[in-house]
User: Fold this.
Amino acid sequence: MRSVRTATAALAVAALSLPLLAAAPHSEARHDRLRAAAPEGFFVGTAVAGGGHHLSQPYPDPFTSDKQYRKILARQFGSVSPENQMKWDFIHPERDRYDFAAADAIVAFAERNRQVVRGHTLLWHSQNPEWLEQGNFSKEQLRAILREHITTVVGRYAGRIQQWDVANEIFDDQGRLRTQDNIWIRELGPGVVADAFRWAHAADPRAKLFFNDYNVEGVNAKSNAYHTLVQDLLRQGVPVHGFSVQAHLSTRYGFPGDLESNLRRFDALGLETAVTELDVRMDVPEGGVPTAEQERTQAEYYRRTLAACLAVDGCDSFTIWGFTDKYSWVPVFFEGEGFANVMTDEFERKPAFYALLDTLKAARGR
Ligand code: XIL
Assistant:
């Protein structure tokens, strides 16, 4: 996050000359909203719940049906990411048919509420439709399919997406390219990754184009693989603009203390960085209610992740993967773990929420 000290100082002087009452609504908003507490130019975001695991849960589509959810979504966040609604299986359900309704609704909601949007995602090994994975297409056909998809989806929202996760999770934890489970890399070779960035850039020259992955918060084999690949692509003039860490963290493991230095080494390559999917899961304790100690530890993970991003110049986008435990993917994907978000099922704020709010306020005041 770049410093906005001068602007803040000027505002402080202006505030002194205003009567107390006039200043109150503003400070009240700041007092209670993540988006208002954030330093100028720093975007605090959330995933917008819908699609994916939600489809098999006993509740209607959260984004379109839950009024309280929508209200908090608009009030608290300056950035939104469709959790599933722009993924291949959702947006491109048949070869000759796209379904833009949900993605359109999210982008329109964001504009009404003066939020930016992170697009997610274009080239991935997961959540691809059957027609694609089982289609037995030739190389030429697959290339044309990918190019058309990227051109269509990125083009549709051109100028309205701040950052696109162009390539998602292309390396395994050992830092090897996913040459087996990623259909694009398997069938078309690693060069297709550069092409995906080129096609996305042609469709929306204003969007910042990212690599995004999990388990790359610290310096390790996987983040090293990205560091090497990005340098290679930049040398070739490929339009890569950012590297982002998902940050699906668990209190089972220690906090990745080298997060900040890892972000810095990508920053040093001239890339933007971002935190895109932060949640902090914990073991569901006996009785099913997290202890105060568990919530404190969780809050600390949230605080440290945000602080690392705030400390790095080009890290201006910080997204949590949903804000309420009510709609979390965690209990569905990680047996015995849960309570990963900053609000309870009932939208009560947990210590993690206040950890974010206080850290933002402190950064804004710096
Ligand atoms: C998850 C969604 O939260 C679920 O609803 C869905 O069922 C599976 O995917 N990395 C990513 C995200 O890039 O897209 C994933 O989202 C979580 C891991």
The longest strand covers residues 272-283. The domain at 78-244 is CATH 3.20.20.80 (TIM Barrel). The CA atoms of residues 6 and 21 lie 25 Å apart.
